[in-house]
Write a structure and sequence with these properties.
Pfam families: RDD
Helix content: 40-55%
Order of helices and strands: HHHEHHHE
Membrane topology: Multi-pass membrane protein
Structural class: mainly alpha
Radius of gyration: 36 Å
Protein name: RDD domain-containing protein
GO cellular component, one term: plasma membrane
Number of strands: 2
Largest sheet: 2 strands, antiparallel
Distance between the termini: 92 Å
Keywords: Cell membrane, Membrane, Transmembrane, Transmembrane helix
Amino acid sequence: MSFGDPNNPYGQQPQGQPPYGQQPPYGQPGYGYPQAPQGVPPQGAPQQFGYPQQPQPYGAYPPPGMPGMGGMPPYAHWGRRVGAYLLDMLIIVGPLYAIVGISGATSSSGEPTIGAVLGLLLLVYTLTMGIVQLYKEGKTGQTIGKKALGISLVREADGRPIGFGMAFVRKLAHFLDSLACYLGWLWPLWDDKKQTFADKVCNTVVFKIK
C-alpha cells in the first residue's frame, strides 16, 4: 500500500535527497545554514565599501597631513648638506693629495715610472669612487657623507630614491648652482623646501632621517 505518488513505494525517499532525519554531507547545499547566492557576503559578515587600500611602496613617504600617517620627515638644513658634501669630497681628495705627494717625491728622486703608476692608480680610484658614490646615492638616496650626516636624497613626488641615471643628471645640473656667483648652492638657506637649483630642475629633495 502506498500514499501520494503511486510509483513511490511506502518508506522510500525521493532520489537525491538524504533519508529523513539526516543532514546532507558536508559541503553540499543545504548543510547547516542556508547558502548565500554567489558573490553576496554571508549574513553578519562585515561589509567593506569603497576601493581597497593599496599598500605604500617601500621607502615612499605619505603626503603630509594624511590621517594616521606621520607625514614627511623634515627637510635637511643647509649645514648638514654642506657637511655631507665636504665629507664626500674628503674621501676622494684625501687619497688624491697623498698619492700626488708620493708621486712628486718619487719623480724628484729620478724614478718617473713609479710616479706614472701612482698617477694611473689615482685616476682609477677617482673614477671608481665617483661611480660608487653616484650608485649609492641613486640606489639608496645616500652617499657615504649623506649617510654619516643622516640625510637622504629622494624624488619629491613619491619619496623614492632617484636611481643612478637621475643621480648623474642631477650631478651635471649642479652647474646651475654655480651660475650667478654660486647663488644656487646658497638657495637652501631660505627656500621652503631647502632645494638648490639642481634639486628644482630634477624634482628632488633632501630629507633629514635621523
